[in-house]
Specification:
424 residues, Carbamate kinase, VC0802-like, 2 domains, 15 helices, 20 strands, binds aspartic acid, binds magnesium ion, transferase, aspartate kinase activity, ATP-binding, kinase, lysine biosynthesis
Length: 424
Amino acid sequence: MARIVMKFGGTSMAGTERIRRVAGIVKRQQEAGHEVAVVVSAMAGETDRLVNFCREASALYDPAEYDVVVASGEQVTSGLLALTLQALGCKARSWLGWQVQIKTDDAHAKARIEDIDADALIASMASGEIAVIPGFQGVSPEGRVTTLGRGGSDTSAVAVAAAVKADRCDIYTDVDGVYTTDPRIVAKARKLPLVTYEEMLELASVGSKVLQTRSVSLAMKEKVRVQVLSSFIDEDAPAADTLPGTMIVSDEELANAEQEGSDMERQLITGIAADKNEAKITLTRVPDRPGAVAGIFTPLADANINVDMIIQNVAKEKGETDVTFTVPKADLPRAQSLLEERQEAIGYYRLIADDQVAKVSVVGVGMRSHAGVASTMFQTLADRGINIEAISTSEIKVSVLIDSDETELAVRVLHTAYGMDAPA
Ligand code: ASP
Ligand code: MG
C-alpha cells in the first residue's frame, strides 16, 4: 500500500465524459490498495474565461476579488469529480482550500503556500475516503481566498503530496511524459524515463510547458517523487505503479538507475527547449566606464523586469561598447521606455529592439562531467548557417539566441547532433 496524490489538468477535466474517465483512473488506483488524494484543475479554458470577466468588470481589478472569481473554476471540478466518484461507488469528498487548510501569504493572484494542515486529510484518506482538492487556491492569513498564479495546480499537488508525505505525486496530463523535445517539432523525439529536478527546472524555465516551474522547485526542496503521465489511456494501459510516464528524481536516484542499467539510452543531453517569449535589446556605443552597465540594469531591476542573456561587445571605438540583452517580450515596451528616458544619463547612442528572436537551450546533467557540449551546439548551428546573437550558460544548460524563423530547424539539427533521435 502506498499513499498517492494524483493531479489532473484542465484538458483531463473538460466535461462530464472526461471527468468520468478520470474517476475511473482514480478508482483503479484505490482498488490497487492505495490511499488516494486528487488535486484538480478547472476545465480547460475556464480560467481564461473567468479572467476575462474580471477584466470586463474593472480594468484595474482588485486582486482579492479576482481570486474569488478565478478560484471558482476548480471549485466546480472538485465537486463534480467527488460526485462522479460517489456514483462509481467510492467514498469521496471535496476539500476546498480554506477547508483543508492550504495556508498562503496574502499576495493575491500570485500567492505562495506557507503551510498545509494535513491531519484531517490524512485521516480521511486512511479511512478509505478519496480526498478531492481544487488546485490553484488557498486561504490568506485574513481568511480570504487566494490563488497561486496561472498553472498553479501543479504546485498545489506537489504541496499536498509533501504535506501528507505521499510516496508519489502523479501528474496526469495530455502528454504521456516529458520528451527530449517537443514531438510536434521533432517526430523522432523520445520519451524520457527519468529527468532530474534540476533538468526539469531548466527545461520548465526555457519553455517546456509540462509543469509549472514553481512546482518543480517545491518538489526538489521537499523531495517529492513526481511522475508525469497521460490521463488519455484505456483500461488495459499499464498501471501508474509500473511508472509508464516520466519520473522526476534526484541526482542520486538517477545515478542508481544508471548503475542498474535501467536508463541505458540516456544521452549527454537530456532535453532541448525553445522559448519565443523573449525580446532582444541592443544599446550601441555605451561609454566603457565603471557604472555604465549598472546604469542600464538597475532601472530594469527596480521595475521588476527580468534580464536573462547579456553580452557586452568588444569596444569598437576607444571607450565605447555595445550592450545586448534579453527581456520577456511582454516587458519590452516598458523596458524600452525606461531606457529611452535615461538615454542621456546612460550615454548610449541608439536603442535597437528585436522581438523576432528565440532562445534555444540544451539541458543535461551530463554536461557537468563532459566537455564539448557548447562547441557541438555552436558548430552544428554554424553548419546550417544559423547565426548566434547571444549566449548564456549554467552548470547544466547552454542557451543561444537566434532568429525566431530558424527555431524549428535549430531544434531539429541539434536533436540529431546530440544523438537523441529515436531509432526509425
Ligand atoms: N486553472 C488554473 C490555470 O488555468 C490553474 C491550473 O490549471 O493549473 O491557470
Ligand atoms: Mg498546467
